[in-house]
């Protein structure tokens, strides 16, 4: 290589027409970042239809219960779980895409130059994620109320309000955890397709494998509540939890959600945005 | 004002940016010039905090980019016009930036008009944009917050000749108002037209920097003849430094470190007919530039011995 240079010393600054020094702008408030991130979740076709599909699935589920469920099953818990199940699939997708699109669509180049403290942008996404899961759960419960009332009126059965506040709280908590799993996979994998596949493996493939393992291996059957995160979380849908079930939930969620999320965030802060 | 100080970025054993130091000053357009893969984009990503440097530092307006409270209001950045969510409309992308920066809503329409996108184009999704339209949208995003520093990576890519002319006038206007403008390019001629200062980078290192006038003046004479060996001998006998040049686009040219009169009389004494004799404005720079490209062996230049 022979790149010899015609290097020239930097000359003294010539006079320039300077603008008046400008005041330093105010920092971007966090609430503004949250509102921008919320908008970004739903301003694309994919985002819009994911949101719309929550409502559509809720209506379809309610209609299905009214049409096909036996009269004895026209209860609030039937409606709530029929509406809640499609949401457990759709909500984490929203969380995944909120994070991964910054990398897969490369919009992070703009996002992280406008908000160079990546932690603030990611925290805003986390707030939006949790907010959406709570709002969606509330929507499911309201649609469930309408379904129960309509069902009892149409079919002439008594409205069965068989979900207490504790169970409602547990269902909401399960939705938030599920959505945070999607958020964690988005942060850790930072690739849309990869993170979505990761979510399906995490939530739908692993439970089958652990189920088989638990039935064939006695030692795993005993250990399972402490290591199987889906098993521990499924308790939230099945009624109230006792102290040991809360402990299982806390331990598995810490290992399978909090630790990977921390590692993913640590890597994300140091990664290169290209 | 952009200050880059001893900036180095390595990927394993590969030094993408190697001890780069320069300053882009207010009121001037600084051209950041180098062949593909020279380290321009990596340097720019480090300046705006997207890539952590291995060592060294970059400051903008006297602060690290990450310490700016609302960077969009102070620094306009365009690194890659295609790096936008393909499913958003152009208007939506500007609206997101406008809201993040906390600007009035009317700025979005002002910018759409300023970069000559029609309202119907602005409402189209970016997936359906041509590269030139993406470039205009990227420039609109960069200018949205009325910044006093612009960092633009290859902003002329994909623009038509009228667009390039428009861009040039726009950058000139910004610099004349006192803004600092740093733009990169791999095309010498594109940057020569608009830049006041040049920073030339190759293989991660700065190989030349200074004002455009200085860099173009330091080039001597360009001479073409059908008898290159004869003229080479005559110049060597006269003790004048010279080198083959590809700047004229052929293999019959020499660049000589002497003024045209000296070269003319040497040729006359040796009875060598010349095809062309002129001051080699910028030829030295172009020479160096072609050499950088050749050294990377991505292209073959017209110089046989360079390959």
UniProtKB/TrEMBL annotation, chain A:
Extent of Low complexity compositional bias: 1-10
Origin: domain of life: Bacteria
Presence of the UniProt keyword Transmembrane helix in the record: yes
Region (Disordered): 1-21
The keyword Transmembrane is annotated on this UniProt entry: yes
Bilayer-spanning residue ranges: 48-68, 74-99, 126-156, 168-189, 196-214, 246-268
Name assigned to this protein: ABC transporter permease
Species in which this protein is naturally found: Aeromicrobium endophyticum
From TrEMBL, chain B:
UniProt xrefs under InterPro entries: AAA+_ATPase, ABC_transporter-like_ATP-bd, ABC_transporter-like_CS, P-loop_NTPase
Record keywords: ATP-binding, Nucleotide-binding, Transport
Domain of life: Bacteria
GO molecular-function terms, A-Z: ATP binding; ATP hydrolysis activity
Domain ABC transporter: from-to ranges: 2-228
Protein biosynthesis keyword on record: no
Protein family: Belongs to the ABC transporter superfamily.
Protein name in the entry: ATP-binding cassette domain-containing protein
Species of provenance: Aeromicrobium endophyticum
